[in-house]
Amino acid sequence: MRRALVILMALVLAGGVTYALFPEGDDDKDVVEVSGLIGSEKRDFFQDPQVVAELAKQGLKVNVESVGSWLMDGETKRDFAFPASQPPADKLRDAWGIKEVPVQPFYSPLVILAHRPVADVLRQNNLATLDESTGLWTFRMDAYVAALKAGSTWPDLTGAKDHAELKGPVFLTTTDPETSSSGALHIALLSYLLNNRQVVFDQTGIDNTKKVLYTATALQGGQQSSSDEPFKRFLAGVGNPLVLAYESQAAALVLKGEPTGDMVVLYPDTTIYTDHTIVSRTDNGRKLAAQLRDNPELRRLEARYGFRPQDDPDAFAALVKGKTPAFAPNLTAAKVNQPPIPVPDVLTRLIKAAKGKAQ
Amino acid sequence: MNAPVNAPANNATNDVTNEATNAPVRQKGWRLLAAALGTVLVTVTACTSDATPPGPKVTDPPPQTAQAGVLRVLAGSELQDLAPILEDAKKATGITVQFSWTGSLDGADAVSSGRADGKYDAVWFPSNQYLRLDDTGKSKVLSETPVMVSPVAVGVRSSVLNELGWGDGSKVTWAQIGDAASAGKLAYGMADPSRSNSGFSTLVAVAAAFSGAGAALTEADVQKASPQLKQFFTGQKLTSGSSGWLAQAYTRAEPGKVGALVNYESVLLSLNKTLSPDQQLTVIRPVDGVVSADYPLSLLASSAQRERDSFQKLTAYLLKEDVQKRISETTLRRPVTPGVSPAAGLPADRRRELPFPGSRAVADGLLASYQNDLRRPSRTVYVLDTSGSMDGSRIAALKAALSRLTGADDTRGVRRFRNREEVTLISFASKVKSTKTHVVPPSGSQPGPQAELASINADVQSLSASGGTALYDSLEEAYRVIQRQQQAAGDDRFTSIVLMTDGESNEGATDNDFRSFHAGLSPAQKAIPVFPIKFGEAAVSQLQGVAELSGGKLFDGSGSLDGAFEEIRGYQ
Lengths: 359, 572
Fold this sequence. Notes:
The complex is a heterodimer of chains A (359) and B (572). Chain A has 14 helices and 10 strands. Chain A is α/β, with parallel strands linked by helices. In chain A, strand 5 (128-131) and strand 6 (136-139) form a beta hairpin. Chain B has 572 residues and is α/β, with parallel strands linked by helices. In chain B, strands 5, 6, 7, 8, 9, 10 and 12 form a 7-stranded mixed sheet that branches. In chain B, strands 15-14-13-16-17-18 form a 6-stranded mixed sheet, sandwiched between helices. At the A-B interface, helix 1, strand 2 and helix 9 of A face helix 1, strand 4, helix 12 and strand 12 of B.
């Protein structure tokens, strides 16, 4: 009797197992796991169930972890690293000895976020302009650099005294250029403007720009290591009134239909487009990179997270049309200039100079 | 770390779900198999026993090695209020968060020195600002996600607010607060900035506000603000190594003695829920700016992949709109996910964020000058049991612990006797054997502080063990010593007594004698807290009684006497 029971149980168990294995067998066999490091700005994208599903359909299960773009090179076990811009990607290629040109599936310009009353103060003082017909805001970088050089403070500006939070000097909050891509690109952008709109390539250029770069950095005090933090602090209503962010961070929020309060997106008249660059170490990493660039469904999802797919400019424009705050459907039409980025060695030295480490 | 013996019990309920289905399995098909087996096993267990299934609990201390489904977190103790949220997180994600508690700055040290490596998967302090100033510390953190926000604020009692003519408190500046403090119209409590992030943030905020620093604080800014800072700190009447004790001390203080507390907005608002109507605090966020904590949950670079995945799952959960709303309502901190409204009672108008020091040298310099130059000096009395039972390793441990407080290797003023501090060592057995008082000279004097510290250490090394234990007699003597010192100097110092014993009082005055002695003290003397340290076979009930009667706090020195002596420095 007892023996019969044991056999019965074994059969029940075996049956259960067989049943469980059959339906899984087919669509499962080609799924490979791919793991990599990403900038924090892409975390939500990779966690989106639709993205996960589409990648699974293509046979990929992607495990990601977010880390500052400049902190990715110590990692040697992953299939790929996906920093937010090209300079850290170049550094990774150097460190890993990778020759092939990495894929840049999408990009996003650096923008400035402010609350509407602050944007109005900027506008009254010719630091920003508003195109009433499109609702697009432009941040005047030359005027800003002049304010930085002059040590302008908020109370110096017309209309600022009505706002309790507008005290102290006028400056942009960025991430730490030593650890994070957006902070480093901010230095690249400022150095270009300070060097008479020429990319810095030598010691003379560094010497010409380092004083103001240091000021722009020192004004911020302790800096945060990833773009997520200053953005979240801005949304939570704390921190500096002007925050440098990726357009994608703001756009993703709006496209998710989440309220953004009185947030305004200001496009600097000269800004850097950050090319999200995926550096692959393995074939699985390369497979993922190709999917992100070529798969129409993934491109659609990338645009929904506020990124501009490199090969599909309309994807983003169509989504942001008529949204508040206003986004530029076409950056060229919005007359946004794009400066070149210094070569990695010079950029590193500019960053060190900005951080007060003699160069 | 030495947990105070009277640490609040974390009495959250536990609901342990079956962990079998959460085991990491590579292939989908096998995961189903595991789930099927799991179900069978659970069914069997359910038939044979009604006992709670085993599994990690939120209240458990973190295990030494990583464990599936558990995130081991070194955290600031204020996060205890997240317990109900983390219970829900566990149900929703299968991840159990287990905490070890520490002060933010000590925690930053643990990360920088590598002591957190492998022992914890993540850290969670009110702010990583101090940690980030250290390059090694910064490199130990892989990613951080701010979870909620609370600015440092000043909670002022309504009666005091009216006397000062500050209306509803919505237009007050740090300069006004400083003026009121230096005019003797505003007495406040604040946590020790060398240990607690709220104290440190306050120090940074006032230094930035008084120096008019537009940018990251520099040494020059601190210099410039020094006179005003000194004035501001004349108003500090309570100091504390922890927020919890500070709130208790405020509640105990005589009416009118302490009119304000400096702490996070969330702590002050939460405290209001327990305060009587006349003690209610109006929360002032000074209009010239604040320093805010953003509570970044931070993944350590030393963590393993499994724990990294748990971390991602947990942070995703914590940032969900409904969870953020609940966090704000439960903790009275501000949500970070846009579109989520803060809990009722949190004002929406914005404040400027005051600049933080840009280097560790400036931050530590500011802390050292707070301890040695800016704050009101202390009168610190040690009542030390040197009875026969202390002979051998115990007296050696006592000497070592006290000797550490005279050392110079203390960059931010966590331990060492401070410049201007008056230190009295009372050694007792059957009776008081010796009473030795030292005043550490101020910065820049000749001979400098080092000579006096060496002299304290010489007294410490001369202690020897013999005789009985006349605990209460000796404690009473400490009060008399303080009274004489106060009369002679006519000064106003932070005054406290440390009582270290390894036994039970067996000679002289009894527990009841001491109670009547204490009842007969002047209000000023009654306000002196006694911090007993339990060591060896000390009678906990006697020591707990002394701590409660005097408004002090009991510490456990049986694990590490060094640690207990150091932790008490935050209260002196």
